[in-house]
């Protein structure tokens, strides 16, 4: 019995990032940073129960977890060369990326994963295809999934090059409002005492959000950014000083998803503000010992100047 997504108290930015990436997987994945016990894994597992299949006719979505100690062959799959050479067949043995197709690929403690494995995951997430090559023998298969990584920054950081490859990033904290914190305890007690009744009490809110996601996915293709919107996105990226063009493209995909989530046919300033916060914070260059908390202020200042300019 899974804890309902709509029963999670607070953590609005985390929940929104997950939903936007689910609406538009081209966003490129979500990295959730935060201390233990902040509903990171709960939200990821609850998301799968909430989502429609990624493609029409696909089976119900599941969460495929990637172990920290997974080898490259375990992740991408392997080819039985002896069988391939002797029998003339590819003899492909599927890996985690095969199982992840049409599902959520969840990497807990992604900062502890080997950098080479993270690179592979992010490459496949971007291309939607996994290719395995061994001694001149190759095999490819579709691997389109919703990528979610979680980590506790106290246990180590991701290299900036890898951070940049995640579309969105959010930081989560424990609730500091006593009333909210009390509500977390009450709901957890209710779920533990009678999970069936607790889940049933959120059935309507889960159904409503499921329908909203379906409608957003249907609306998404019709939301075409205007040149004015694209110019604002480019100006925001230049203003905050991020490298490369990936931030611009991610902001565009995120703004489209946010507009679709709110039933809009055009991207608005509010969509751009949300997209900038989610897509740029982890890509900002920082001075030594500079606190991450200043990032939102820097982004908001630039976004306001661009939108009012």
Give an overview in words.
It is built from 14 helices and nine strands. Helix 12 crosses helix 13. The N and C termini lie far apart (51 Å). It is globular, with a radius of gyration of 20 Å. The model has no long low-confidence stretch (mean pLDDT 86). It folds into two domains: 168 residues, 3-Layer(aba) Sandwich (Rossmann fold); 84 residues, Orthogonal Bundle (Helicase, Ruva Protein, domain 3). A hairpin with a 2-residue loop joins strand 6 and strand 7. It is of the alpha/beta class and 309 residues long. The strands form three sheets. A five-stranded parallel beta sheet has the order 2-5-8-1-9. A two-stranded antiparallel ribbon has the order 3-4. The chain has a two-stranded antiparallel ribbon with strand order 6-7.
Short description:
This protein is an alpha/beta fold and 309 residues long.
Q: CATH superfamily name of the largest domain?
A: P-loop containing nucleotide triphosphate hydrolases
Main CATH class of the largest domain? Alpha Beta
> What is the H-and-E element order?
HEHEHEHEHEHEEEHEHHHHHHH
Q: How many beta-strand segments? A: 9
Rg for CA atoms = 20 Å
Instruction: Give the overall average pLDDT.
Output: 86
- For the biggest β-sheet, the strand order reads 2-5-8-1-9
Per DSSP, what share of the residues sits in E-state strands of 2 or more residues? 5-15%
Query: What's the quaternary structure here?
Result: single chain
Structural class: alpha/beta
Low-pLDDT sequence parts: none
Tell me the overall shape.
globular
How many distinct helices?
A: 14
- CATH topology of the largest domain, anyone? Rossmann fold
Distance between the termini: 51 Å
CATH architecture grouping of the largest domain:
3-Layer(aba) Sandwich
Main sheet: strands, sense, barrel: 5 strands, parallel
Percent of residues in helices comes to: 40-55%
Number of domains: 2
């Amino acid at each position: 019995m899974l804890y309902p997504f709509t029963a999670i108290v607070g953590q609005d930015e985390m929940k929104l990032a997950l939903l936007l990436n689910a609406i538009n997987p081209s966003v490129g994945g979500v990295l959730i940073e935060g201390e233990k016990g902040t509903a990171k894994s709960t939200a990821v597992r609850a998301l799968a129960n909430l989502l429609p299949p990624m493609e029409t006719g696909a089976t119900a979505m599941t969460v495929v977890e990637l172990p920290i100690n997974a080898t490259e062959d375990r992740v991408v799959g392997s080819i039985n060369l002896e069988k391939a050479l002797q029998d003339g067949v590819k003899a492909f043995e599927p890996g985690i990326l095969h199982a992840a197709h049409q599902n959520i690929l969840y990497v807990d403690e992604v900062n502890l994963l080997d950098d080479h494995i993270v690179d592979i995951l992010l490459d496949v997430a971007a291309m939607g295809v996994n290719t395995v090559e061994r001694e001149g023998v190759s095999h490819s298969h579709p691997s389109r999934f919703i990528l979610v990584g979680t980590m506790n920054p106290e246990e180590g950081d991701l290299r900036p090059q890898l951070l940049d490859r995640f579309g969105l990033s959010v930081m989560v904290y424990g609730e500091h409002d006593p009333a909210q914190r009390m509500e977390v305890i009450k709901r957890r007690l209710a779920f533990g005492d009678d999970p069936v009744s607790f889940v049933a009490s959120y059935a309507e809110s889960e159904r409503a959000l499921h329908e909203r996601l379906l409608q957003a996915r249907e609306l998404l293709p019709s939301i075409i950014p205007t040149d004015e919107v694209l110019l604002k996105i480019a100006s925001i990226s230049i203003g905050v000083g991020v490298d490369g063009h990936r931030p611009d493209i991610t902001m565009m995909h995120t703004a489209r998803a946010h507009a679709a989530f709110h039933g809009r046919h055009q991207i608005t300033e509010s969509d751009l503000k949300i997209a900038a916060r989610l897509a740029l914070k982890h890509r900002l260059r920082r001075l030594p010992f500079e606190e991450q908390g200043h990032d939102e202020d820097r982004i908001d200042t630039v976004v306001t100047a661009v939108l009012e300019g």
